[in-house]
Amino acid sequence: MNGRSNMANASARAKARKASLIDATRMRQLLQLGPDTIGASIGEHGYRNEIEEYASRLSGADLIEAALSHNLDNDLSTVLGFCQGRLKGMVSVYVDRFSYHNAKTVLRAVHSGADVEVVTSQVLPEENSSNSRWIEIVRNADTLAEAVTSMSGTPWGNTLSKLDSDATLQEMEDALDRSYYSIALQAMSGPDGHPLIIRYLRSEIDNRNIINQFRALRQDIHGDDRATLMITGGKIGETALRQASHADSEASLLEAFRRAPTFDDTGFEEALAVSAEKGTMDPIVTLLQRRHYAILRRFAHLNPISAFPIIYYIESKVLEVQNIRLLVRGKAAGLSNEVIEAHMDI
């Protein structure tokens, strides 16, 4: 029934790895440390090898950020390695998003004319072998069109090749987002998929659409231009999305989303008030991210022998990396502990 999957074994291994992650208490302890001692402290939590690998040429926040990214790539490879059969297919659908993210990073580098040496030393370090194909594209492509050609034969390359030759960087990034979710939903709708993963992905699409609409409204983007930002496939219906794209205020935008039966507005007005006061989208993003993370946690607990404990671990690992990255960058910028913690999800 599991397509020769090893769900029990893989789930147990994922849970063990999840238990070893840095918890909220330890993360707050890291917040009290200086920039120079954070690296030594996180080395005790599985990052030592990567920190030592980059220590010869990097220091401070740059060193830790490079080590974090490399460690995450190694971790994703390890997790996929201990998944088998149908289970590996389901987990791969989730992990594919990181390749789409790298594709966007490469497009930005080529579009901005970033120096290859800067890219290979800071953005996509050469020490990380998984960056080799991406670095090669940056090194050999002078234009976005050349970068797209270099990506041929990949899902993201196939998506980009269907766009007009004069497509902008933003249009390419939007197309990649839509393509990832379309392919993921299609894969999970097949015989090797899982209905709860479809539900999780659709919830994620809704969150992306909500954030994009509020952000676009604050950027004075209206009407049909906002409608093009929508990612199809979520639980919020097309009628509500169409109405949302033509809303001319945050109050009317929220009201448009409320017309969708699947939209949960709990805590939204409070988040909007804080967001307006501080002039940042962070309260809205944090509200949706925590709600989405809670869905995944519940699915993992209710389905202990399935793909969800593995996906839950990956999401938790990504969250740990994001929190440490915010921590070290905030320290390097001289921000107070209170400001840094407000932006961390702990």
Provide an overview of this structure.
This protein has 346 residues and is mainly alpha-helical. The chain has a domain at 195-305. The protein has helices at 7-19, 24-31, 35-54, 60-81, 85-112, 116-123, 132-140, 144-150, 155-161, 169-188, 195-218, 223-227, 238-245, 250-258, 268-278, 282-302, 308-332, 337-343.
Quick overview:
By secondary structure, this protein is mainly α.
Structural class: mainly alpha
Number of helices: 18
Q: Biggest β-sheet: count, sense, barrel?
A: none
Please state roughly what percent of the residues sit in beta strands, choosing from under 5%, 5-15%, 15-25%, 25-35%, 35-45% or over 45%.
Answer: under 5%
Low-pLDDT stretches are none
Order of helices and strands: HHHHHHHHHHHHHHHHHH
Task: Characterize the overall form.
Answer: globular
Radius of gyration: 21 Å
